[in-house]
Design goal:
Length: 288
Amino acid sequence: MGKKKIVVCGGNGFLGSRICKSAVARGWDVTSISRSGEPTWSSVTSSPEPPPWSKSVSWQKADILKPVTYKPVLKDADAVVHSMGILLEADYKGVLTGKESIWGGLSRAFSATKKGSQNPLERKEGEELRPQEKDGQLTYELMNRDSAITLAQEASASSVTAFVFISAAAGAPMLPQRYITTKREAESTIASSLPKLRNIFIRPGFLYDSSRKFTLPIAFFGGAGNMVNSAIGGRLTWLAGAAVEKPLKADLVAEAVVEAIDDDSIKGVVNTSEIESLANKAWRRGML
């Protein structure tokens, strides 16, 4: 395969930075877009210092809600990756940090519906997304669904051939149902409204890495839950969701994303077993 150009939206994040790293290792032209530009390295790796590979990435500042800020970097890109979803909304975070009452925060966080932006399918090319909640909250609908649909639209308009959406294997008991439903709505809308794009929907479970020590015990118990669930034929999946999905190392998922971009036959939903298969294929490629 020849040299590719990819744009990673959210490339300064936990998974996004690793996707950038994997793409750089293949000699690709890599651009990351995020509000802050280059990562705070201590938050995504075990060191506060920039790793050597980071010098090969163009760390651009842009606002995912304002396409005019990132549209120029989509030009001539072969693939665009959306890795900017949110796990917790402000209401939930407010409860966990003590900034909001438990009842008030959780009742709003677990409400059946919240607003995102204006309908992205009726949005003009380049038009920014306008949060529809009165306080401008960044909701699942806005970040997990509408920003992904809009990025895919802008990528398609820029003649990008592949679009990767970092979705999720399932919801979890401790998260509002809207976390996963908005991701599924994004997948469905992108697939149906932008059929010319080679859409790739990556659905990992919990991601862990030794640089984030708190993820290790969660991954351990998640792995144990996955083994129990597998032993009883998956009968816990409906109840526990991602809590019994096999946890994956973040680097492994990043390798799978880059391998999926490089393999023109990969399209549609990529689940845990397929993520592992793609990562193994990438590993074998690296050994040659």
